[in-house]
Structures are given as structure tokens and as C-alpha cells.
Amino acid sequence: MKSNYKKLGYYIAPAGELNIGMQVDNLLGISNAKYFQKAKTNTIGINLETYRIVRKGQFAFNRATTRNGDKISIALRYESDCIVSPSYRIFEVVKTDELLPEYLMMWFRRPEFDRYARYKSHGSAHEFFEYNEMCEIELPIPSIEKQKEIIKEYHTITDRIKLNEQLNQKLEDTAQSIYKEWFVNFEFPDENGKPYKSNGGEMVYCEELEMEIPKGWIRLSLEEVCTLITKGTTPQNMFDKKFDSSVNYLKAESINMFHGIDEKKLSFIEEDTHLKELKRSILKENDLLFSIAGTLGKFSKVYKKILPANINQAIAIIRVNQDKISLNYIEGLFLSGWHNEFYRDNVQQAVQENLSLTTIKALPILIPCNSVLEKINLVMKSIQKTFEQTNKENQMLIELKEVLLSKIATVEG
Fold this sequence. Notes:
This protein has nine helices and 21 strands. About 30% of the residues lie in helices and about 20% in strands. By secondary structure, the protein is an alpha+beta fold. The chain folds into three domains: about 5-140, Alpha-Beta Complex (Adenine-n6-DNA-methyltransferase TaqI, Chain A, domain 2), CATH 3.90.220.20; about 145-215 and about 370-413, Helix Hairpins, CATH 1.10.287; about 220-365, DNA methylase specificity domains (Adenine-n6-DNA-methyltransferase TaqI, Chain A, domain 2, Alpha-Beta Complex), CATH 3.90.220. The longest helix is centred in the middle third of the chain and has 40 residues, at about 145-185.
């Protein structure tokens, strides 16, 4: 044991009394991202008095690690009391004058802790990481002042990430509002700057859509305004680590919630596989990526930084023919969620929900007149530029956060 390392068992004690008398009815689970989330358990006919209470300031973890990927699900309860599965283990820091719970939670967010927990898991058909193994963890315990300093630095980074995510959410809401007003309600600005339809703008009936649309607009399918719509494939060989001449390989999870690509969730393939086995799905700059299996509807634009790259079968490539339609306009449609209702009616049910390429290609697209396209392009350029800037900043902040988490293994003082 390093001189400044201490065993965690000295600082913690078991907790988690039974929910006798149904004191708490807020049933939660814990995600691999290490936060509490709504439980998926069907509680009909279940006696919740056998579940365990997690009080504010206590930790809970799922001791089962067999099917949990490379993460252990553990979280600190910051909010009001909740209950968790009886199979979870709950504990609390009892020497808070020496170890702050938030500092300990930072330690649990380190990938090194996940690797340790998986290594120390035991079992045959199912593996478990038990409380006694948790107590054997060794970690450096700096002074309370130093812990507070590190926690403050961590929160500065995470608060900025959260602020950027909130900004992106507002931008997405704005884009959705604009697209609904312009391309559903047809209240885009006319030549006098007034809402088109409510100010007498001429409408004509479109038989294909069975609705009236502004005069001069046409209806096409997505396929008609693209040079390519296809999807990827799973290669024979795939790697978790980057190596010389390797190529980035994206899955649906690689597309983050704000329409960017999470470089921390990339896999890698050999260049020869990329160019031969998966040549159909080689990505190009400005391709639009759209998840078509699992979590449907996540999308991102491909930027030069990520190339060379390829994708699996859960992602569709949408390559817009920019001689026919503005890329900004099509990207804005996906950003606005304008397509959701059409796709919702065409989802195929299998082991997981999915969309066929035929459905993707058939998406009806309204093509506005040139004056409206010019106006929406100006609006979308501004929104997309801000999206790109905040996504780029968040990627840097996430890297900085990981550096900080790695440094606490050597902290002194």
C-alpha cells in the first residue's frame, strides 16, 4: 500500500434499512453512468417493504457485474430518499471529518475503479462485487481542505458542461419551434415580413400529402434529394483501442444527445477492413448520421476531424445532394424532429425497434421556394455554429474532467 493510501473500509459502514411501513415509494435504479434513474422493474404485486432505503448522502451500488459491460453501477444520493432493489448494497461515509462523500464519488467515477471492481468480482454463472471487496479498496485520503479544493475544481468543469447542454437544449427547442411554425403551420415570413398563411398567402392542395401547402412548394422523398442512403455493417474484427493506421468505427452510442460524435465511445477497425469489407459505408465530410436501431432518431453531421470513419448497421448514412437542396435545410429538419411522426408509424418491431432503409428513403420532404430556403439557411447556420462550438467545448471539458479524475490517484496534502 502506498504511504498515503488508506483502506476504504475504515471510513464507511453498511446502511440501507428495509422499507418497513412503506416509508418511501420512489423506486430507482442506477445507470452505468453512475447516477440514479427511474427503475424498469414492474412493481405490480411486489412487496416494496423488502426493498432498501437509500438516504440522502448515502451510496448504493449494483453488486452484479456480469452483464454490466466494463462499468459498475454506483451512485451517491444527492436528493431525497429513495428505495432500490434488495440485491443492491448501500453504505455511507461515517468519518466525514476525514473523507467527504463527494470526493469518494469522484474516485468511483474513475475507469480504474471499474476495472478493479470487475477484477475483484466473483461467481460462476454470475459475478458479483460484494461490500467486503469495496472495503478493501485503497485510495489516497488528502486533507479535507484539499478534498474541497478538488471537488470545487470538478464542479467548475461539470457545471460548465451542464450549462452548455442547457444552451444546446434551448437551441434545439428554438429550431423545433421555427420549423413547426414555418413548415407545419406555414407561417414563415412573407415578402413583407408577416406570417405567410394567416396573411393570405396562397395555398394549393397536395394530393400526395393530402393537405394544402404554399404555392410554389413541392413534395419529394428524402431519397430524391440524396446521392446515398445506406447503413453500415459489423466487421469481423473490431478493437477498443486505437492503433497505427486504425479507422474510427461508430455505433449508435457514439452519437451523443446533442447531435455530436462522442469520441470516447468510438471503436476501431483496421484500414483494410474499412476499405474492402465495409467500403459501402465509408463516411464523408457532411454526411448526416441517423440511428435506426435501438435508440431511434439520434443524429449528427460528420466533421472532417472524425475521418476516416465507418459505421455499424444501427446507423444510416444520409448523403444530401447539395445541388438539389441545402444541407442546412435537411439538417434542420432532423434537428426539429419534423420526421418523428412519419417514422413512428413505420417502426418495425423485433428484438429492438428499428427502421428500414426503405422507410428512411421514403420520408416525405417539403421543398420550399428559394426565398424561404435562403431565410431558413441563415437561421440554421447560426444555430448549427453554436451547436458545433458548444459540442467542441464540451469534448475538451470532458477530457479535462478525466484528467482531473486520474490525478486524484496521486494527490497529496
